[in-house]
Amino acid sequence: MFDKAVIDTDRFMDLPVSAKALYFLLGMEADDEGFVSYKKVLRIHGGNEDDIKVLQAKNFVIKFDTGVVVITDWRKNN
């Protein structure tokens, strides 16, 4: 489930469509705490590193050097 309080914001609406799609795909693949291998998602579904950078810059995810991200609004979305 995704919370409209997150996705109905100007901050989300201003994202490129590819970054929005990646956000939803990350949410679908994440574990119970909101952690997910973004590299795996990119390999499976396509996309590029620029979309992760955009999501990180807009504080939708926190990126770790291991190739994992955590979705910052995970609890709100669930």
Describe what this molecule looks like in 3D.
The chain is of the alpha+beta class and 78 residues long. It is 54% helix and 13% strand. The protein has a 3-stranded antiparallel β-sheet with strand order 1-3-2. Helix 3 (17-29) crosses helix 4 (38-45) and helix 3 crosses helix 5. It is globular and about 30 Å long. The termini are close together. The model has no long low-confidence stretch (mean pLDDT 93).
* Number of discrete helical segments: 6
User: Would you report the number of β strands?
Assistant: 3
Q: Categorize the overall geometry.
A: globular
* Helix/strand/pairing category: alpha+beta
Amount of beta strand: 5-15%
Question: For the report, how would you describe the main beta sheet?
Answer: 3 strands, antiparallel
Residue windows where pLDDT falls under 50 for at least 5 positions: none
Radius of gyration: 11 Å
Architecture blueprint of SSEs:
Elements: H1 4-7, H2 10-13, H3 17-29, E1 35-37, H4 38-45, H5 49-57, E2 61-63, E3 68-71, H6 74-77
Antiparallel strand pairs: 1-3, 2-3
Helix pairs in contact: 3-4, 3-5
